[in-house]
Amino acid sequence: TLQITDLSTPESGTSARARFAADVKKGLSQHDKQLSSRYFYDGEGSRLFQKIMHVPEYYLTSSEHDVFTTHRQTIARQMASQGDFHLIDLGAGDATKTRIILEELLEQNAAFDYVPVDISGDAMAELCENLQQALPELHSHAVVGDYFDALDWLDEHKPGRRVLLFLGSNIGNFNPEERQSFLQKVRSHMRSGDMLLVGMDLCKEPETILRAYDDAAGVTAAFNLNLLHRINRELGGNFIVEQFKHFALYNPQKGVMKSFIISQQDQEVTVQATGQTFQFKAWEAIHTENSYKFTLALAETIGQENGFEVKQVFQDKNQYFADVLYAV
Ligand code: AVJ
């Protein structure tokens, strides 16, 4: 069976644009300019991210894929070990990796339904269609909306045990404060017997990490610079994107990959929806993304701090990536 619930409204479209404009205005008015990585994922940005997942240097996707193929039996058994459940996939996207677990759960005759959650209605429609083709016996109910709107909706409409997924090192986009608040909020929607599986990219050779965010074909650069194209398209900006460049930097002490957009000359840019013109000095940077890297010790600590216990850690053969199963 297949169902889609769309929590977004026509008004949420207008207010999303207003929020984007306000965030751009604030971010480009600061001394250290910044734009949020949240805004990478318009249609074009999502297409470019799909492409990144196939870039040879971007080891994250293939590593997590390796984790799932290697440990599919154990992961599925752990999930199903406490009885019936809803499998809730936060930020499901095309769910390529989740599908490995779905197939295994079906093989094990586990009693569950699949609830992919994503902000992109197009992605959820496409996913449901693909799942119905590939796994017709799967019960799925997609929810289109923000993670926490979806969790509120699920509290009311889908009671019962839940296993939550937050894959792909999406948690790495949060700084430590944002991560605490995310985990606390997720925890508040969980009860004893529920589980949370979190994908985390691990600290490793800095060159390997750096190459993943500065690939030779320039796909990551295009992904980053698409943010300026998006401002041009949606907010009436006049960025001459060729006068900016992508720059990636890894800090091995903080374990964080940082992405920037650098202005290659003195220039000014007007963004109609903000009613403002912004000045850029030559070589001035806009910070656009944090991608935090983890250690197993950190995985344990952030769990403990937020009421989660590490039940099992699954890794790929290179130990590049970990999927950490938390119980509450
Ligand atoms: C989707 C947030 C996991 O940080 O690795 C890929 C996004 N940015 N290349 C990441 C991204 C540049 C990605 N996440």
Automatic annotation (TrEMBL):
Organism: Pontibacter populi
Protein name per Swiss-Prot or TrEMBL: L-histidine N(Alpha)-methyltransferase
Matches recorded under SUPFAM superfamilies: S-adenosyl-L-methionine-dependent methyltransferases
Gene behind this protein: egtD
Histidine-specific methyltransferase SAM-dependent domain: residues covered: 20-326
Annotated InterPro entries: EgtD, EgtD_Methyltrsf_superfamily, MeTrfase_dom, MeTrfase_EgtD-like, SAM-dependent_MTases_sf
Keyword terms of this UniProt record: Methyltransferase, Transferase
GO biological-process terms attached to the record: methylation
Short name of any one Pfam family annotated for the protein: Methyltransf_33
Top-level taxon in the UniProt lineage: Bacteria
Molecular-function annotations in GO: L-histidine N(alpha)-methyltransferase activity
Enzyme Commission no: 2.1.1.44
